[in-house]
Amino acid sequence: LTKMVRNFHRTWGRQLGTLGGGNHFIELCLDENEDVWIMLHSGSRGIGNAIGRYFINLAKKDMGNQLGYLPDKDLAYFTDGAQHFDDYVEAVNWAQDYAMINRREMMRMVVKSLQAELPPFVATKEAINCHHNYVQKEMHYGENVFITRKGAISAATDELGIIPGSMGAKSFIVRGKGMKASFCSCSHGAGRKMSRSAAKRQFNRFDLEALTEGVECRKDKGIVDEIPAAYKDIDKVMKDQHDLVEVVHTLKQVVCVKG
């Protein structure tokens, strides 16, 4: 792992504290009490993707002829105890830690920038951190197993989480209910209802302006694929997972910065 990370040190060192593109964002939001929240969404940046590609290629080589039994070669995997299994788990944990530190650094810079421009204020709540594409070992149904959450967050009993909508919709701070049947998980966000290419074909910057009225954000054609209409109805998503989480705060963004 040390050797592999060293090969990418120029990339991950330079990207620490950066947002990235796509659906990554920094937002200033107001809750139902008019309290201000800073919310940001980012991940492990380029190094996480590089680690994934590195180990997928290793897994393909290790599986050899067994790859033919898989519907997609990118589903190649390591079995527990295999040569690269422990290295992969260590690398995944490293990438998750990097993602968390990256978000922490961005949050520090955002708070510092706001303090420089606004009247004195203090943060009154601890930050809530959520991984949403990750794997970790947990106890479920009496067994210690690896749980992969893709587009999902942990929703263990009384655990706080974040569920964003879109750049023109509400977001939610939630408390997990520990639903065993969902492996103590819930959705990470609203989720897309159409691809980025479909959104670009269907909508234009005027649609984006209309659907983000009241939000200070980019409204150019470069982010039309992030238009709120490209995402599912967050209210319906929350209704459908009411047995997984309870809503603690409802947030509405007033400023949204897209990567």
UniProtKB/TrEMBL annotation:
Concerning InterPro entries, the annotation shows: RtcB, RtcB-like, RtcB-like_sf
Needed cofactors: Mn(2+)
Chain residues that bind Mn(2+) 1: H24
Q: How is the cofactor bound?
A: Binds 2 manganese ions per subunit.
A molecular function (GO) held by this record is: manganese ion binding
Q: What class of enzyme is it?
A: ligase
What keywords are assigned to this protein? GTP-binding, Ligase, Manganese, Metal-binding, Nucleotide-binding, RNA repair
One GO-annotated biological process of the protein: RNA repair
Gene3D superfamilies given in the database record: tRNA-splicing ligase RtcB (3.90.1860.10)
Q: Pfam family of this protein, just one?
A: RtcB
**The protein's Enzyme Commission number:** 6.5.1.8
Where along this sequence does the record place binding of Mn(2+) 2? H41, H132
- Tell me the active site: H188 (gmp-histidine intermediate)
Question: What positions does the entry give for GMP binding?
Answer: 23-27, 132-133, 164-167, 171, 188-191, 258
Q: Which reaction does it catalyse?
A: a 3'-end 3'-phospho-ribonucleotide-RNA + a 5'-end dephospho-ribonucleoside-RNA + GTP = a ribonucleotidyl-ribonucleotide-RNA + GMP + diphosphate
Return the PANTHER family for the record: RNA-SPLICING LIGASE RTCB
The molecule here is called 3'-phosphate/5'-hydroxy nucleic acid ligase
Species in which this protein is naturally found: Leucothrix mucor
